[in-house]
Amino acid sequence: MTTAAPPTTTTRLPPAPKRGLRLTPAALIWPALLYLILTTQVPFFMTVYYSFFRYNLVDPTSRPFIGLENYVTLFTDPQNLRILLNTIVLAGGTLILTLVIGGALALLLNRPFVGRALLRTLLISSFLVMPVVTAVIWKNMLLNPVFGFFSWLVTKLGGHPVDWLAQYPMASLIAMITWEWTPFAMLILLTGLQSLPDDQLEAARLDGAGPLQEFQHIVLPHWTQAIQVVVLMETIALLQVYGEIYGSTSGGPGIATTNLPYFIYQKAFAEYNIGLASAAGVITVILTNILAIYLLRMIGRSRSSQGA
Predict the structure, then answer these.
(1) Residue 13: is its pLDDT beyond 70?
(2) Taking 80 as the threshold, does the pLDDT of residue 18 lie above it?
């Protein structure tokens, strides 16, 4: 008599989980990076490409390669050097005025008084106005020689009406853009001022420091980083001013208020000279990047010295 062997039981292991596609942080950044490359770098490299050709839309079939001739034309023509100087004067003059006026307003708003919140809101409002709207308001309501506010004020003081945009075009344009960008400097400097510890000011006052000494030795060193941020951001923006010029002076009289962005507009859309406009655009980008890198290094050195 034989006995049947007991059935053997085999244990089944659970199926191994399927490993899905794991995205690394770098892979998640790639879609945004690809979009950024397509929308910024591809047009820039196309601009660089066109800058080496004599390309005019009047005769789009003729596009001879001329190398650096467009760049040589830009740097050898005295008129173009005047335009470069206009760009620097416009950006530099506006930057200095916004720092001075914005700093004074920041010191004012840092003190408690009745209606401070309302005043701060009113002072910020000019920064929210579009550039072309700013130009139209200043051109027709403030600087007009017949019914503008400034001409009316000069007449009331016993003077004669002044055609501000014709007689003082660059100064008028600087005043216009200063009115537009002063709130930005004021906000950044006010933020930096509000981070200043009160005990430092109280200690200086106990030591007999006056308001000027307090500002020179305490407030101004504490403002270093805020000032550098204002200089960096405004320099990049002021080198690209276009709407205010287009809506007020159209680059005139002559080329008195023509800067590099407006010069690019004239060459590309008025004269259809794509090659020369592309070369001017490349120079503008290079100039802006050089200033931005220099200012960023200044900010980095300031932070490292303060951290040490």
Answers:
(1) no
(2) no
